[in-house]
Amino acid sequence: MHSSHFVMAITFEILSAIAIESHLISGETPNYQTLGLRPFWVDENPHFGMWHPANEEYTHIKSCFSALYTSNSYVAGDKERSKEIKERQVLVIGAPFVEGYGLNSPERTSDLLEQKMGIEHLNFATSGHFVLTQYLLLYQHLSKQFRDDAVIIGLLSDNDFRMMTLNMEKSTLRTNTDLVLKSEATGIN
Fold first, then answer.
1. What is the C-alpha to C-alpha distance for residues 164 and 133, in angstroms, rounded to an integer?
2. Which SS3 state, helix, strand or coil, does residue 74 take?
3. DSSP string covering 101-166, please?
4. Which helix (H) or strand (E) holds 10?
5. What's the CA gap between 151 and 89, in Å, rounded?
6. Is residue 88 within 8 Å of 119, Cβ to Cβ?
7. What confidence tens digit (pLDDT) does each residue in 105-156 have?
8. Confidence of residue 36 (pLDDT cuts 50, 70, 90)
9. What Å distances lie between residue 42 and 52, 66, 109, 168, 186, CA to CA?
10. What is the percent of the chain where pLDDT is above 90?
């Protein structure tokens, strides 16, 4: 990922945060608990924190939707993918709407793009207070194990920017800072 793309993403994120805080765009903090089951989003990855348990299925029911979420062996909320693929691939990283929060897999943007373009779109997005720092760590430690011809980063200022800076609890800020420092200390790029 080029630094200019990351700067553009941050700029877009800041503008989105201003729009939400100005009530030009509505934003609601999602609920990540699945009734009767362990949460689908758990803070268990040593490199980037919030992620999914492997090879699981969860039904997420809210007043406005019912969605089935699945995770693969790489614990991404996506169907099983091969690292050995020789065809073109696009990696998709980002906010809850990119993961498909509230949607069944065929309705997600990554699945629709894959169907329309005939190119695999590997969905590495996640919900659960997953912010920009973690996008980078996810790419460094997991996503880049897969061949990519392009990377799509989907931002949602309510999660990515506001939570990271304006209304973040001290423990979450410490966790994200610790993740970056841990990555830098180990020399993992």
1. 9
2. coil
3. TTS-GGGSHHHHHHHHHSSEEEE----SS--HHHHHHHHHHTGGGS--SEEEEE--HHHHTIIIII
4. helix 3-21
5. 9
6. yes
7. 899 999 999 999 999 999 998 877 777 888 888 888 888 788 888 999 988 7
8. very low
9. 6, 20, 23, 18, 23
10. 14
Residues 102, 90: Cα–Cα separation, whole Å: 22
Name the β-bridge partners of 154: 94
The dihedral through the CA atoms of 13, 19, 24, 29 has a sign that is positive
17-51 exposure pattern, b = at least 16 Cβ within 10 A, e = fewer: beebeeeeeebeebebeeeeeebbbeeebebbbbb
- Range of the structural domain that residue 8 is part of: 3-186
The overall pTM is greater than 0.70: no
Q: Which helix (H) or strand (E) holds 9?
A: helix 3-21
Q: What does the angle CA 32 – CA 38 – CA 43 come to, to the nearest 5 degrees? A: 65
